[in-house]
Fold this protein.
Amino acid sequence: MGTILKDYSYTPAKIERGYSGKSLYINVSDLRIEEKEVTDFMKEKFTGGKGFDLWYLWNAVTPQTRWNSPENEIVMSVGPLGGITQYSGTGKTLVAAISPLTGIPIDSNAGGYFGPLLKFSGWDAFELQGKSDKDILIFIDGNNGRIQIEEADEYPEDSHLLAEELTRKFSENEDDMVNVSVVCTGSAAKHGYMGMLNFSFYDPRRKVCRFKQAARGGLGTILRDKKVKALVVKYKGVTPNLNNAADLSTINKVGVKYHKQMHDLDSKQNKMRQIGTANTVMIMSQYDLLPTRNFQTGGDPEVVKISPDVFINEWLTQGLHDGCWYGCTMSCAKCADHFLLTSGPYAGERVTVDGPEYECVAGLGSNLGIFDPQAILEENFYCDTYGIDLISFATTVAFIMECYEREQIGPDHTGGLELRFGNKYAVLELLHQMSRGEGFGRLVGLGIRNLKKIFVEQFGADADLLEDIGMETKGLEYAEYSHKESLAQQGGFAMATKGPQHDEAWLIFMDMVNKQIPTFEDKANALYYFPMFRTWFGLVGLCKLPWNDIVPADNYKTDSPAKVPEHVQNYVDIFNAVTGQNIDKDELILQSERVYQFQRVFSVRMGKGERKDDYPPYRSLGPVTPEEYLSRQDLYDKQLREYQGLDPDSMDLDEKIAATRRYREDQYEQLMDAVYRRRGWTNNGIPTPEKLKAIGMDLPQLLEVIEPKL
Amino acid sequence: MIKVNTEPHPWYSGMTVRSLLDEKLFTFRHIIVRVNGEYVPEEEYERFAIQDEDDVIVLHLMAGG
Ligand code: SF4
């Protein structure tokens, strides 16, 4: 037991209609603990979840705040629907902070029990500010109304050990362990900018702590910079109506209908209950969307070696309920049990590996040229326990490997590591170096934007080439989808507020295959509706997967199957039933848009969020290299003929690449114009006062930021 | 010539929904097929004949993570 530095008592607020009405503020510089009122203004303008996070963060920082400034906060909130147990996917915690990778607000969501248990402990949101001078942990006891801050030097850093030890420490017995949830990171988080947060939930059947991650943007790096080793919450007594919903019977009715769909249709649709999100790996390869060898191509014949069937039949435990919060019948949080590690400090031990999710197989597999399920699982485990965002890591290493193969860097720079595609041993070694803060691994954790600078300035690499092949925008690494043939998705990534993560918009099939959004205006409409709709999940505490990874059998009869109208109505009904409000699907979008536009203005305030910040690397738009062009020569030649009226037979390869590039860059400019118009932004990407007024967000502090930019 | 998802595509005698899906490499299972606006259930893919000039829509219901 570490020395108790602070002991604070409070009276847990009772939750009414989804809100406790209180938020918790802890400053770890001076161990100050305060309780704040959640105001009607906050509920009206920001709804909850990510909205509350961003509002508190806005008030905590200034335009000069950097990720490691003491005033930067990690803010988390589960939202008003968070914690209900009658519908699938209702336990998501949204986390926000100023990111070390981007310098602007990042938001990331995680399952696991922490957010709901925090709310049941009386807190709609939690702000963590300041910097401790020694390692500490914060324990919130929701049953007894107690918060303790204690020294935490003696605890291990890596998540699988730390969460297990803390879960035991704060449980009375084995049965009590499900009532404890831990947020922590790992040993690598302090050696780079891509540290992530693990959110635990105890699995009583396997008798291990499982994890979901708030992975993007370096949240774990900030936690460790504050010298916080872990946040722990304990609440015993989860029952179906702790939210004191206004209309429980509607929630029950909608939930039962949904669970029946899941039961009847999942095996015919996406098999989420067997494999989780990795079900799409083969499909992505077949449709040329699976990022392979740093997004150079969209698939590979070897992908069969890492197909869903391989993971289902040989690695993932089947038949267990794998929900990351109570009541989730989608139950997609799969894992490999008794997995034998072959490298690193835990070599020879058998562990439970959470995953692999799609991003893991695509990122740590095909994008690194690794088609070996065992290697992917081991990389997955070490990313998780070391506290590394595997998307940023994978996309960064893919970039490094291409730099290595194109002789932009060499063994002299990598400490002798042969960082060629497919070298799984080198990838694992990089992870272990990141954990120890040594060698070339220490550089990897800085992310692509910083590495481009280092490779050019210190190693003499070609700046233009690195700009083209380094898959980052705004400083954040791309999520794992190739998308060269989907203009809408190019915008979906590069115009996403926080950086190129696909949780704002995933339009590839609608655009590239279904051809449902052919014009710039169609694409702009999609890049308005879907980011707004998807933002809403993060306001209320929901997981997005149950929305569209299973759809009603008659969804095809609707006029907009991509929106899954029945499920949208479910969300409207549940929101009204919990909160007692009476919104419709248009007001749902309005709730989202308020926060969406607020976040854009916030980015502008922090120095990004203008047109110049919304450009992708050219690898996102088209073929950079001769090999890429030649890999799909028929398609590109056809496009030269049909789109530009050129004769590819009379052009040499360089001319064809250049003409393709001119055309695609121009298309992207036109898309930006259309999207900015649709979102109510100036041609420079700044939300207009008229737009803010129309959605009730013409707050003086927002107008003050945008007016000098108009 | 037929249209597939708004784009021209060569037609041949004997074309069925199944043969068209195979030809287009549309391997994703979760799709909706409409021919001239009429929904074609999956069990009819093998025998549903596509005629010259038909307008075929193959909607992939994949909306990403
Ligand atoms: S669908 Fe998967 S990620 Fe979402 S809440 Fe359920 S188990 Fe968790």
Summary: The longest strand of chain A covers residues 197-203. The radius of gyration of chain A is 24 Å. Residues A 88-89, 111, 323-325, 328, 330-333, 543, 545-546 surround iron/sulfur cluster (CB under 6 Å). The longest helix of chain A spans residues 653-679.
